[in-house]
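Session log. Operator J.P. requested a structure for one protein chain; no other inputs attached. Running the standard single-chain path with token output.
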Amino acid sequence: MNKVEITFQDILWTLKKYIIWVVAVSLVSMVVAWVYSTYYVTPIYSTSISVGVFANERSTASSVTTGELTADASIANTYQVLITSQPVMNAVSESLGGKVSPDIIRGMITASVQKNTQIINVVIRGANPQLIAEIGNALSDAAPTVLNALARGGEMVAVDRAKVPTKPSYPDVVSNTTVGFVLGLLLSCSVVILIALLDTTVWREEDLERTFNIPILGSIPPMDSAAVAAAKRKRR
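Structure written below.
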């Protein structure tokens, strides 16, 4: 015998019955997410540098024209690709005394052009905060020298240098812990709803009417007050 339908009251009653279990599962899930994020995930740090790219040819006017700014932005897209080229990576590796290979350095770098500008942002990520700052500053020094000689259509200048990060950018322990709690809550509530759906116990007259589609003509109330209290506790 299966219930034809489940009411919101049925769900609330079942949630109330298993509320301790729901809370326990949610808290355990939250703790597991915190422990995993804190002790089992390697923290990744990030730092950044900024470089500007300018066209070689300028007008004699004191102000920069719109066409010159457009040319700067166009050249910046080319320099964005060239900034991770082999000559630049080799120069950075040599600047660091060869302790990091050019290929590894390239994998730690992400370059992007700020929209409608000639500014290139370069983000360096890694597990060693001191090392990524050294890589960023070595790149800030080497890239303009190498690329100004390699790409003759413009000039690159360093804008911002890298700083040693003090906090990891990944993982986000607070966010992961919150997600763990929410997932535990959703999972436990889903199980409780499933229990309510599969529960064929008849607790009330409405359950009889809903299950057998027949009217209830009357009912015999319990004569013992202790039995009434026991029945109420059981329903809870």
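Operator note: The mean pLDDT is 83.
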